[in-house]
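Q: I'm writing up a methods section and want to include an example of the input and output format. Could you take the sequence below and give the corresponding predicted C-alpha cells, formatted cleanly so I can copy it straight into the document?
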Amino acid sequence: MVFFSLIRTFANMEQLLHYCWKHKMWPIGGLETTDGREVEVIDPGLHNRNSGPDFFNAKVKVGGMLWVGNVEIHDRASDWYLHGHQLDVHYNNVVLHVVGVSDRDVQTQEGRFVPQVVMTVPQSVSDNYEELLRTDAYPPCYRIIPQLASLTIHSWMAALQTERLEQKTLAIEERVKQVGGSWEDAFFMTLARNYGFGINGDAFEEWARHIPLSAVGKHRDDLFQIEAIFLGQAGLLEEQMIPERYREEALREGYFTKLRNEYQYLAHKFSLQPMDGSRWRFLRLRPQNFPHIRIAQLANLYYERRCGLSALVDCRDTVALAELLQTQVTPYWETHYTFGSESIRNAKRLSSSSILLLMINTCVPMLFAYGRHAMKEDLCDRAFDILEQLKAENNYIVRMWQECGLNVKSAGDSQALIQLKREYCDKRECLRCRIGYEYLKRNNETTK
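A: Here is the clean output for your methods example:
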C-alpha cells in the first residue's frame, strides 16, 4: 500500500506499532496469539529506548496464564532473526512478540518459542499520522491545539520546561569537565557563550576557554589590564583585525596601541596564546553586538566582581539578577564600536531584552545545574520560580505557537515551546509528543 510505504519512508512502521502498544491502541476485538490464545494486556510495560527488548516488566495474560516479562515489537516476525535476538540472552525473558506481519515463529537463545501477536494499527490512527506527515502548515497539529484541555497543555509544558533545563544542565556539566571541575570557570564560560546572543555564541565560548581566570584574578583591581587580556585573548589586538579604513585612525588615537602593549607584556608574563580573531562574525551584526563591545562589558562585569557563581547564588529574585547582570563599557568604547571608528557617546548598557535572555539562558540553567550538583533543592526550585516570574521571550517560535492558540505567559512557557519545536516538531517526533498523541487518537473509538 502507498500509505505504508510512506510510513516506512518517514518514521518506520515499527515505531507506529511501538506507539500503539504503549498507549494500548488496538482493535475492538482485542488481541490473540497466532495460535489462537486470547491475550489480555494488564500493563504494556516500560518503554526502553536503549539496547535490549522494547518494553520491560510488562504484564500480560496469554490463554488465561499471567506472564511478567519483556515485550519485543517488530514490523515482521522474521526481523527477530535479522537482528540476532535468537542468539542474545537479553531476549530470553521476552514473554510476547508483537508484530505487524507474522511470517515465521521465533525462539529465544534458550530454545523457547515466544507467543506472537499480530497487531494492526487502527485506521484512524494511521490516517491521522499520515495527515501529520503530509500537512504543509507548521506545526501540523495546529488544528487540535484549541481543543486541548488546559490540564493536558499545562502538564506537557511543565515536562518540556524541565526537559530543556536538563538538556542545558548536560552542557554545563560538560563545561565543568573541560575546566577541571571548576563551577566558577564553567559559569564564566556559560555567561560568555550567551553574550554572543546566538551569532557569536561558539566564538565567545572558545574565547572563554582562552581566558586564564587564575591569571586575570591577579590583576582584578585594574580594569585596563583586564580589558587588555580579554581583548588580546580574543585576537582583536592584531592590526589586521582592524578594517583598513579605520586602521590609521585607530593607531593615531593611541588606545589600541596602549592596550596591545599591555597585552604583550601580560601575555609574556602568563604565557598566553590568543584565539584566532577571524572566528568573530560581524556580517549582519548590529554594532551593539560587536565582540569589542560585549567583551568590554564583560571586562567591566568581571572587574566589579559580578560574574562569579557565588554572586549568582546570592540573588533571590529577578530584580537582584537584573542588577547583577547590568553593566556598561569603559570610556573609550562609549564613543566607539570598533577601534578607530568614532560614534555618538553612549554608555552602551545592556538592554532589558538582553538581560532577559541572559537570565533565561545563563542564570536559570546555572542555578538548576549547580543546585543538582550540590544537592541544594532550593536552588533548583529558585530556577523554576525565576522562569515563571520572567516574561516570555518574543521570537518567531513563540509567535508561531501563539498563532496556534497557545497562551504564553512566562519565560517558562516560552522555553517549553522552544523545546517542543526543536526536539519534537523539527525532528518529526510526533509519536513522542503529547499533543501528537491527542492528534493521533482523535475520533479513534478503539482507544482504551
